[in-house]
Design brief:
It is a single chain. The protein has 158 residues and is mainly alpha-helical. The chain is globular, with a radius of gyration of 16 Å. The protein has 6 helices and no strands. It has one domain.
């Protein structure tokens, strides 16, 4: 449950899937985006979760592909969630760059640009049986999903 030290190529793939759209987003933020009202406590949890997730997925080899078994369903579902996350980014980039578009649900999944990767990392942690990634994903989820829900509520008030 603690994890085996070693490089994870799966972790690197997940991080690329996470970071590349976010880098592009930094150049195409919503035109009405205002981060000044974000809860600082949630922001701290998000940042801690980001750092810990990034480190955990890279330094534990437990996330690398193992021979197929029923346990492999954890990584399959996790990877599918990351693919859906990428689809949500494409949807954002080809549509109008507004907060409403950024935070809108996808097939019933609320704030998918926050909830999908957090859930994917949580499932990856379960697949690898690495408590560090599970705990990191939970911290990240509290912060990131919390911030996204705050933004969504402020949009609905306007």
């Amino acid at each position: 449950m603690l994890g085996h030290l070693g490089f994870s190529y799966v972790g690197l793939i997940y991080l690329l899937m996470l970071f590349i759209p976010n880098i592009v987003w930094s150049k195409h933020q919503p035109i009405d985006y205002d981060y000044s009202q974000e809860d600082k406590r949630l922001l701290v949890l998000e940042r801690i979760g980001q750092v810990c997730c990034t480190c955990s997925v890279l330094i534990f080899s437990d996330f690398n592909i193992a021979p197929f078994s029923l346990w492999s369903l954890w990584i399959i579902v996790s990877f599918v969630l990351m693919l859906v996350y990428e689809i949500c980014w494409v949807r954002y980039f080809i549509d109008e760059h507004t907060e409403n578009n950024f935070y809108r649900s996808f097939c019933g999944v609320p704030v998918p640009l926050a909830s999908l990767p957090v859930t994917a990392f949580l499932l990856l942690g379960i697949y690898g049986k690495v408590i560090w990634l599970i705990a990191s994903a939970l911290l990240l989820g509290i912060g990131l999903i919390g911030i996204h829900i705050q933004h969504l509520k402020s949009i609905k008030k306007r």
